[in-house]
């Protein structure tokens, strides 16, 4: 009876405090909702919630009710006009002119990001669990019991830490490269070994206007027709060389200039490695400044790549499986029977395709935020007071880069966590 009374008092107090101050935040719950904005203009972003069970489907980006209404409208338009010309790009096979330059910048930022991370991980320690996908930035791994690997029950879900690398900080899922994203948008099961797989963000840039000699793609000069829901191309047939070279809005020269733009940060990190520095406290003031410049450069590349990719995804469709991490850039998903997630027997191994998000295109690998690398390991009993951030942001922040505004609320910088000896005194 006593517990019920205290719970009702706490609920009443929480409701009263929320009415008086809508921006009040507790450690276990936060207001307002995710992706909202506080009255003073400060952006609020919370870490996306993971699925409770692997059998649950991913949340839809667009509500199902809107998808049904959109499908009905397309069906009625198809009946009213069976043969029509698709006018708006990229559905008609043409490029979106204002996104061609964005695609080149995203490709450049990706190369700059990988190069910067490859240098930072040699100075700032990155740890990964040998039995699961957990990653931690720091000299000592955290003690939060969230391991889901083999025999985790016998270890009380504690992690087994080892040294990590760039692939543990950020992951770029791969997808099939489409030569003709409109004419042949789907890859068959028998074609799985003949079509190359490349990082999905590179495929997105290629479809948005980036030209790479290693991965040719078809560029049209006239829009395609839609006859009873099927795409028909009446464009005159020309030689393959002319087709590949015509209407190309750029080539891979911007990526060639990438090495020259990163020469200076590269030399700065090499100076740190020549001194055999294994701890950040051993850095001098000049070396700290060099590391800070590289961290700022890498963090800016991450923000530019993420914002540019999100802008391209507003026009170019990207699909992901609702139960597994498989992703495909294009108007439709592939037909490979390779899904091994929940309920795959009822789908004959086919993927349950739905609209993808930026986290599906680039796996940011969220990690626990640590204020100081020299502090003791994070305590499992205080995990509700700790924040999280993408591993790239956490790594660059410890390198000296300022915390971006969009990640401050996610990292819970305004929450003061109690000490280990104060766990029993905290409600």
Automatic annotation (TrEMBL):
**What region holds the APO domain?**
128-214, 320-405
Q: What is this protein called?
A: APO domain-containing protein
What organism does the UniProt record list as the source? Answer: Phaseolus vulgaris (Kidney bean)
Q: Name one Pfam family in it.
A: APO_RNA-bind
Q: Which GO terms describe its molecular function?
A: RNA binding
Which PROSITE patterns does this one have? APO (PS51499)
